[in-house]
Amino acid sequence: MTLNQQQPMTAHRGLVGDDAWAWVARNGWSGSAPSLLQLSANRLSTESFSVARIWQSGARLSRMPDGKGEAVLILIGIDGLSTVRSGGREWILGPNRILIADISAPIELRSSDPTARLEVLTSRHRLGTSVMLLREPILAMDIEDGYWRTLAALVVTVLGTGIDTGDPGFLSLRTAIESVITAAVAQSASTPGALRQSHVSALSRAQRAIEERYSDPAFSASELARSLAVSPAQLHRLFAPTQTRPYQLIQRRRATRAIDLLAQSPDAGAHAELVASQSGFPSVRTMWRTLKLMDAV
Description:
Elements: E1 9-16, H1 18-26, E2 30-32, E3 38-45, E4 50-56, E5 59-63, E6 71-79, E7 82-86, E8 89-93, E9 97-102, E10 107-111, E11 115-123, H2 129-132, E12 138-142, H3 145-159, H4 170-189, H5 197-213, H6 221-228, H7 232-239, H8 246-264, H9 272-279, H10 284-293
Antiparallel strand pairs: 1-3, 2-5, 3-4, 4-11, 5-10, 6-9, 6-11, 7-8, 7-10, 9-12
Helix pairs in contact: 3-4, 5-6, 8-9
């Protein structure tokens, strides 16, 4: 496994448009976005290892396979929801969730709203047995909160201290990150029902339903629950690990669409009613209020 050559430590804040896409490409991804891509990231890398902390606006990213099959890409959700697709299957990435992907197959990562995640690229033989013997395209687990916080804090600390990959102690820091990942996976694997595939499948169906129906002003959290054949209480429990309410996700998707349409209009005020209608808002007033709450206006 060989990473793209670049400076061992990079810190980029507030990248927009072409600059953001250039960073994405250096990190092994390509893709598209419904509007101007915004990104803030820190990355530390060597020829055989990288760790990054990434915040980005909604986008659809793709990663081409590495035919050697020696590397794994580890995604740790921090904020927001993304859908990860590989081998014809889908998984949800969100807070307290880890996905370990075999990068010998193509990977797609997409979200309609801003998200934050950690990415670690390393050799599978440096992780635990459950990862070394990975046979599925992606191993998905919910991480216990203590392990998730420990891993996030360790990565943020390493990325924020200006450590040089040439330091004698760097290998120990790399090992520490990999050891916490291994511990988190081992702890989750020992918990009954850790993979919760039915839970993940329901979240994926909910996200698809929102994407398909957000432009209907009558679509609500109650309608979402009915479409999934669950009660409103069950729907809220389903989304509890994401720390986001279903109604908030629906409104965020509508707001994202409204922002895109307003950006395309030379006279936003004159077309506000049409934008509100096409975005799923019942009124212009509701649209402006929602955008204001999101600090989008």
